[in-house]
Amino acid sequence: MLMHSNDVSLSSASESGSSIQPDPAGRVSVGNIKMYYQIRGRGEPLLMIMGLAGHSLDWGEILPRRLAEQYQVILFDNRGAGRSDQPLCKLTIKQMAEDAVGLMDVLGIDRAHVLGGSMGGMIALQVALDYPDRVNKLVLGATSAGGKRRIFPPPEIERYFIPRPDLSAHDYLLWTSEVCYPPEFIKAHPETVEEKISSNLAYPGTLESYLSQLEAFRTFDVDDRLGAINSETLVMTGNRDVLIPPQNSYLIAERIPNAKIRVIEGAGHIFWISHPEETARIAREFLA
């Protein structure tokens, strides 16, 4: 659900580090594309970066609302997804990191906490490495640094990344939910699964953009650079994640100096949907 303007309270320039007062939502020019964003809450800026083929609605409603109780939360759609442009060209994680920082520039935000989920965590890592002065604290959820140490899921799970032209968009997303949540969660909370599907379908992406993002996701590699990250870092994972196995999170935490790791028991890949209150509590404790 989108926030109406009377639900959004922007921080002052002194609180957010901003030199301007951005609108609470809209599309702005960032580099060679138009990007969609929305802002909720007030306080220190917190940039939230979504993952593969996802957009700002795919965080669900609970986590952004809880975080906006203490922070100025900036949600946005990566290039190739949602209400941002979907150019027909090769995409890279580095380019999407440039977009994220470019959006901060447009909004007048000098420095922010950065939280990324799944492929969004890869983008967050790239931002922390390429623009260290722009990142305060770093939260990485259900992600990988790529490289030779990366642990891919087995082939029977990998197949869920492949488009299914024999299925409708809804049924494809319903099928992929089998690897996004543990089966017992799907059985107990079918309405949550359907709400997530509806959010994703609200602003569908093109097949070409999905495949470009997928290639960027698969070829990402900053593993050998993790030791250079100087932001205080929290790594989060669900112990039931089959898409990006939890071992990847442990590998990241081992290489980033003084990184902390938190494991959400009983959670699968998109734990911010299945366990939003716990995710918010852990993130807020770390960011405080």
What does the model show?
Helices cover 37% and strands 17% of the residues. It has 288 residues and is an alpha/beta fold. The protein has a single domain (5-287), classed as Rossmann fold. Strands 1-2-4-3-5-6-7-8 form an eight-stranded mixed β-sheet, sandwiched between helices. The chain has helices at residues 13-16, 62-67, 93-107, 119-130, 155-158, 169-176, 183-188, 190-202, 207-219, 247-255, 271-274, 276-287, and strands spanning 25-30, 33-40, 44-49, 71-76, 112-117, 135-141, 233-238, 260-264. Mean pLDDT is 92; it is low at 1-20. α4 (119-130) links the parallel β5 and β6. α3 crosses α4 (119-130) and α6 packs across α8. It contains twelve helices and eight strands.
Question: Layout of helices and strands, plus pairs?
Answer:
Elements: H1 13-16, E1 25-30, E2 33-40, E3 44-49, H2 62-67, E4 71-76, H3 93-107, E5 112-117, H4 119-130, E6 135-141, H5 155-158, H6 169-176, H7 183-188, H8 190-202, H9 207-219, E7 233-238, H10 247-255, E8 260-264, H11 271-274, H12 276-287
Parallel strand pairs: 3-4, 3-5, 5-6, 6-7, 7-8
Antiparallel strand pairs: 1-2, 2-4
Helix pairs in contact: 3-4, 6-8
CATH fold annotation? Rossmann fold
Question: Approximately how much beta-strand content do the residues carry?
Answer: 15-25%
Q: Please provide the count of β strands.
A: 8
- The CATH architecture is 3-Layer(aba) Sandwich
Bulk shape? globular
Low-confidence stretches: 1-20
